[in-house]
Amino acid sequence: MKSRSLMPKNLADRVCDLECAKDQQPTVEFVGPVKIVLVDPSKKENRRKSCGAAFIALANLMMGASNITILYYTLGFKLKLFVNLHIVLCTIGYQLCFPSAILLLNSLNGASSGLKLKQRKFQHLFLQLFGLGCGAAGSALVFLDHFKMSKFTFHSITGVASGGIAVLAVLTGLIIYCTGKGTVEDVCKFCHMSYGVLSFILSSVCFVSGLLRPVYSKWVPLPEMLAFPIIFCVFVTIVVVFGPVYKVLKKMDYF
């Protein structure tokens, strides 16, 4: 039986590395026993993906920088042990695990680009559960250390609100992961994204308000060292919530 070439005649003598058709039409058809269609993404789509991946990479770098700065501060043990543990656990839970969990679902994120959707969902849920555990433990430690009504500040109120909404986000996430497709999943998915975005925004507000407290602002030797973690936190928050907010607004027919 004679074999039939699956490649167009004008491309038959060229080694095809999926870039050989870049000068051809966006869609190239190979006609034979099996019809193969290669669709070349548009330049606009490539630019969008490149910019999105770059912003996510920058967000990961800034997330690490701001978190390391705070963790380095706790190594000086300027505060009580329970308060230091509160800072470490809440920072890891709300400012490291939660944003990382959200970014894991993005296909442009380098850490999850090679994973299947089901694998990304599992890692997303695992990081959320771990982050919620860290945040809850950190909040419990500081409340045990000094539980007085006069201690409820803007920082503590936003922290408690973020943790409470995070519980709702994790619960709806568990329902989505354990149930099949249907109306219940669609409703829970909408609620899960809404709760997750609101919880992370509140945790960022809580994080920034903690940086502005005198006990930390007096520790930094230069004003820039106080400004940069705040700028990094704002940038990370915008990048992380952009995708979920867009999806929520799209479900509400805003786009």
Large-scale geometry: globular
Unreliable spans: 1-24
| Separate helix tally | 7
Give me the side-by-side strand order of the main sheet.
1-2
Gyration radius over CA: 24 Å
- SSE string, helix = H, strand = E? EEHHHHHHH
**Proportion of residues in β-strands:** under 5%
Give the N-to-C terminal Cα separation.
54 Å
Structural class: mainly alpha
Average pLDDT, all residues: 82
Biggest β-sheet strands, sense, barrel: 2 strands, antiparallel
How much helix, percentage-wise, in residues? 55-70%
Count the beta strands.
Answer: 2
Describe the structure.
The protein contains 7 helices and 2 strands; from the N terminus they run E-E-H-H-H-H-H-H-H. It has helices at residues 43-74, 81-104, 117-145, 154-178, 183-211, 214-217, 223-251; strands at 27-30, 36-39. A two-stranded antiparallel sheet has the order 1-2. Residues 1-24 have low confidence and may be disordered. It is globular and about 75 Å long. By secondary structure, it is mainly alpha-helical.
Brief summary:
The chain has 255 residues and is mainly α.
Question: Which helices and strands appear, and what pairs or packs with what?
Answer:
Blueprint: E1 27-30, E2 36-39, H1 43-74, H2 81-104, H3 117-145, H4 154-178, H5 183-211, H6 214-217, H7 223-251
Antiparallel strand pairs: 1-2
Observed structural traits:
7 helices, single chain, two-stranded antiparallel ribbon, 255 residues, mainly alpha, 2 strands
